[in-house]
Description:
The protein is an alpha+beta fold. Helices cover 20% and strands 32% of the residues. It binds zinc ion.
Amino acid sequence: MDRPVDRRQVLKGAVAGALTMWASPRILVGQQADKVKVLDGGGSNVLAFSSGEGLVLVDSGTPTSGDKLTDALKNIAAGSKVQTLFNTHYHTDQTGNNEMFATRGAKIIAHQRTRQWMSTDYWVEAEERYEKARPKAARPNETFLTTGSLKAGTEQIDYGYLPLAHTSGDIYVFFKTSNVLAV
Ligand SMILES: [Zn+2]
């Protein structure tokens, strides 16, 4: 494509009619229903959606926030298992507890490039160091290129690739029934 795609336009297309609120570094758009909670993942946001049959998370927090996150999840839905975890991109602030949730049986969904980034060592120019590839258990086990969708209880969840975003593999997750967008 010759002209860069404006991220706002992409989002507007994804959630026509939703209320919009832009906040850095994570963005939520729409009306937050009771089923949706935004948790502190050690400085980054973790969105938890309770479907009644289990939990859907968007991002897994920083590497040291696992215990706190586990407690917070117990408070919102005791006995509920995390069935699905989305990673909006590959940074450790968003994928730090992937192993923990994968071990407990969660499916991890992300863009194909997110899994590629997490599967190889790469050079971090600004910090002059290599970031090590993540262990296999931390990597997404279901990936996509453009869009996808699933049902969690009665909730329709649509997700897709965001071009020209924070990394080359950023995605949005749109909880359509509740009208909540996480990017
Ligand atoms: Zn990041």
